[in-house]
Write a structure and sequence with these properties.
The chain is an alpha+beta fold and about 400 residues long. It folds into 3 domains: about 100 residues, PAS domain (Beta-Lactamase), CATH 3.30.450; about 90 residues, Helix Hairpins; about 150 residues, 2-Layer Sandwich (Heat Shock Protein 90). It is about 50% helix and about 20% strand. The strands form 3 sheets. A 5-stranded antiparallel beta sheet has the order 2-1-5-4-3. Strands 7-9-10-12-11 form a 5-stranded mixed beta sheet, with helices on one face. A two-stranded antiparallel sheet has the order 6-8. A hairpin with a 5-residue loop joins strand 3 and strand 4. Helix 6 packs antiparallel against helix 8. The longest helix has about 50 residues.
């Protein structure tokens, strides 16, 4: 073999070694490259699937939290910061949200119970920085891990504050409906004897006026005065019963022309006993030629009663409650309820319309009166405002659209 041929043979072997053809390295790298492409495609699919799952996670209208096996927040959706911005941060313990006063509370904590394999449904109450109570339904479900015996917990938080308010309003409506049924029966039982009492008293008065012999007898001097009181009070009792029937009559929700002076007079009959018992003076200043307002009679009675009861409850001891009506312009009628009570502090005056906010003692109110009042007035197209000074009193002003003649 010539020298040139030998050199060519050596160079070819060196080239094969250099290129890795002698041990199929090129085939190996080609296979690795193919695997890399497959992994990149798989990662792309995983990122796409992850984005899809995250979008689904964030689209849930409830708060969603995933706790790890140590009870620490692992993930949360965008709703959770609206409810609990600090207590649901990643890394926070379930203790901060569900049992801040205890290091461990497995019997009360839905997360700890879910980590133990139990599905839990509870209700909880939370108070925010504005001292307003919110109500939540909580569902905690264990998440099984196939590769490990450790579990995670999936927690759903649903804000049911509005639902709770509606339930309490429904309870109030049902209570009023029951009062209406009761009042109808009581009215028939009481009106008959009252009519007899008033009728006989009027007959005796007529007899005193017709028989001079009775008036000449000095022993009967006080009798006409007593009989007039009996007649007056009997008819006043009848007016109270009629007012109670009007107040408790079930509303059909339809709007009609309402004389606000008549509504206030009816409701006043229901609270006058409270005024006399608590030595509260009631003053009225009704504009006589005021036009009717557009509204729901039952709803407006509820508004007036709430405002009058609040005014009475704000006064400790003797005081004054003043009710006035007037026409502001051709399209608006206003009525005001003013009291000389304790007043409302500036730091809480913006919260009085919130459901469940109350400064009353436990058992004396749920904090729904003004919230219901506000909703009724807004639903009827009106407006309500308050002015108050601590130690001097408060004035609630309600403006309603007037009927156009």
């Amino acid at each position: 073999m010539g020298r040139a041929a030998v050199r060519a043979k050596i160079d070819e072997l060196a080239l094969e070694r250099l290129l890795g053809l002698d041990n199929s390295k090129i085939g190996f790298y080609a296979e690795v490259k193919q695997k890399i492409h497959e992994l990149e495609a798989a990662n792309l699919g995983l990122r796409s699937k992850s984005s899809e799952l995250q979008a689904m996670f964030d689209s849930i209208s409830d708060g969603v939290i995933v706790y790890d096996n140590n009870g620490m927040v692992q993930h949360r959706n965008h709703v959770c910061p609206q409810y609990f911005p600090q207590k649901t941060l990643p890394g926070c313990s379930c203790r901060e949200l569900f049992h801040p006063e205890y290091e461990s509370a497995p019997h009360d904590c839905p997360v700890e119970r879910a980590l133990a394999g139990e599905r839990v449904e509870i209700s909880m109450t939370s108070q925010n920085s504005d001292m307003k109570d919110s109500y939540f339904d909580v569902t905690a479900t264990p998440i099984e891990d196939n590769k490990s015996e450790q579990k995670r917990a999936l927690v759903f938080l649903r804000d049911v504050t509005e639902k709770r308010l509606q339930e309490l309003q429904l309870m109030q409506a049902e209570k009023l409906s029951s009062i209406g049924v009761l009042a109808a029966g009581v009215a028939h039982e009481i009106n008959n004897p009252l009519s007899s009492v008033a009728g006989y008293a009027e007959a005796l008065l007529r007899r005193f006026s017709e028989e001079n012999s009775l008036t000449e007898d000095r022993r009967f001097d006080d009798f006409p005065k007593y009989l007039q009181v009996i007649v007056r009070e009997s008819y006043r009792c009848k007016g109270i019963i009629d007012s109670l029937l009007s107040f408790s009559r079930k509303s059909d929700g339809s709007l009609s022309n309402v004389d606000i002076n008549d509504v206030l007079s009816e409701v006043l009959e229901l609270v006058r006993y409270k005024s006399r018992y608590e030595k509260i003076e009631i003053r009225t200043n009704f504009q006589s030629d005021i036009p009717d307002v557009i509204g729901d009679p039952s709803g407006l009675r509820q508004v007036c009663l709430n405002l009058l009861l609040n005014a009475h409850q704000a006064i400790h001891g003797a005081g004054i409650v003043e009710i006035s009506t007037r026409m502001i312009d051709t399209s608006t009628v206003q009525f005001e309820v003013r009291d000389t009570g304790c007043g409302i502090p500036k730091e809480t005056i913006d919260q009085i319309w919130n459901p469940f906010f109350t400064t009353k003692d436990v058992g004396k109110g749920l904090g729904l009166g003004l919230a219901v009042t506000y909703n009724i007035i807004k639903r009827l197209g009106g407006d309500i405002s308050v002015e108050s000074q601590v130690g001097i009193g408060s004035k609630f002003s309600v403006r309603m659209p007037a009927c156009q003649k």
